[in-house]
Amino acid sequence: MSAPDPAAPAGAPAPTNGDPVSDPTADVLSPLHDEHVALGAALTSFAGWQMPLRYTSDLAEHTAVRTAAGLFDLSHMGELEVTGPQAGSALDAALVGHLSALAEGRARYTMIVDEHGGVLDDLVVYRLAPERFVVVANASNVAVVRDALRERLTGFDAALDDASLRTALVAVQGPRAEEIVASATEPADVDAVRALKYYAAVPATVAGLSALVARTGYTGEDGFELFVDAADAPALWRALLAAGAPHGLVPAGLSARDSLRLEAGMPLYGNELDSTTTPYDAGLGRVVRLDKTDADGDPLPFVGRDALAGRADSQPARVLVGLQGLGRRAARHGYPVLASAEAGAAHVGTVTSGAPSPTLGHPVAMAYVTPEVSAPGTELAVDVRGRAEPVRVVPLPFYRRPR
């Protein structure tokens, strides 16, 4: 998610930084694996799963999501259910957000950090009932998040259940997403699905199957994510493809997902976020609720609070910025950012994600740079394989969908 959607995992290089090396013998197969094979997808090893990288072309799939809709398999994501009378209080103590204040049927983007404030993962948490939450984690971090939550729930009347392998997740993203999902939804549930606000969820019957339908996504477009039992995933996938065909929907893979989230300025764990990065470094300090209190008005402690409180009002050593390429060559993950295009220019940062932008027609990148060169309009350069390519600091996101 986001707010960024935490749907992209970190166990392999981002597709726009070069295709990950396929090793199907080591991978978990998605419940939709046979569907992807039937559609001729190029499959790749990603975060311990074999997932579709693309079906036709990266450009065609990216463009379909911006202009019509794309269908994504997100079954590699983790779903961790936290239940019990103190489930909300336990999550308040475990995560940086104030989850006990979350209304039933709503979702929140948040993070789990270590005691030093470093990000272990970014998450989306859904409150499905007063005593039932679902924490959605990035694929390669499921074990880390699960183990940390299990430890942090100690002493609370709350239980943790890892439902990841029992749950499939598919997403319909794009300006036609609502029409497509509504057309596949049982008539009694259509109004509730259409009325969903951003970061809200509702149970519904879609294609005759029980689903949790959430209005969330990781592309910068309107869209829905549908959670179903793993055994129901193929039927749902085929029904959504059929419902979406008249509206221009196409299946889309990890490569398009990555270029879409980059245009939307959404962070990827392992690129913009990791355990050496605090939420404040990434410009996401808004998700840290230092002000959360209990029913008596006393401050609620949580893991990493003291470290983050010490960083809240201080100038970070590095700032996450957007970079617009002024030439044709795209910056990529790990490339050095330079103070200028002149020979011998000082190194002032590092690119975290970069690619040509199909929507905007020029290269874009995100990078951590020193504060003194972080103002929008600042002209810098990126060392692209030994050649200094000019770039300009611009506000994030690069792309906002038309309203």
Describe the model.
Helix 2 crosses helix 8, helix 5 runs antiparallel to helix 6 and helix 5 (177-184) packs across helix 7 (233-244). Residues 1-24 have low confidence and may be disordered. The chain is 20% helix and 30% strand. With 403 residues, it is of the alpha+beta class. It has helices spanning 33-38, 58-67, 87-94, 142-152, 177-184, 187-194, 233-244, 254-263, 305-311; strands spanning 28-29, 42-46, 49-54, 69-73, 78-83, 107-113, 119-129, 132-137, 159-162, 167-173, 201-206, 209-214, 223-229, 249-251, 319-325, 336-338, 347-356, 363-369, 379-384, 387-394. The protein folds into two domains: 1-314, 2-Layer Sandwich (Gyrase A, domain 2); 319-394, Aminomethyltransferase beta-barrel domains (Elongation Factor Tu (Ef-tu), domain 3, Beta Barrel), CATH 2.40.30.110. The protein has nine helices and 20 strands. A hairpin with an 8-residue loop joins strand 16 and strand 17 (347-356). A six-stranded mixed β-sheet has the order 11-12-13-10-4-14, with helices on both faces. Strands 15-18-17-16-19-20 form a six-stranded antiparallel β-barrel. Strands 6-7-8-5-9 form a five-stranded antiparallel β-sheet, with helices on one face.
**Strand proportion:** 25-35%
Q: What is the average of the pLDDT values?
A: 93
CATH domain class name of the largest domain: Alpha Beta
Give the strand line-up of the largest sheet.
11-12-13-10-4-14
Helix count, DSSP H or I runs of 4 or more residues: 9
From the 3D coordinates, which CATH architecture of the largest domain would you assign?
2-Layer Sandwich
Tally the beta strands: 20
Order of helices and strands: EHEEHEEHEEEHEEHHEEEHEHHEEEEEE
Count of the domains: 2
What is the 3D shape?
Answer: globular
Residues in helix, %: 10-25%
Ends distance: 20 Å
Low-confidence stretches: 1-24
Domain Aminomethyltransferase C-terminal: 318-399
Protein name: Aminomethyltransferase
Catalytic activity: N(6)-[(R)-S(8)-aminomethyldihydrolipoyl]-L-lysyl-[protein] + (6S)-5,6,7,8-tetrahydrofolate = N(6)-[(R)-dihydrolipoyl]-L-lysyl-[protein] + (6R)-5,10-methylene-5,6,7,8-tetrahydrofolate + NH4(+)
Family: Belongs to the GcvT family.
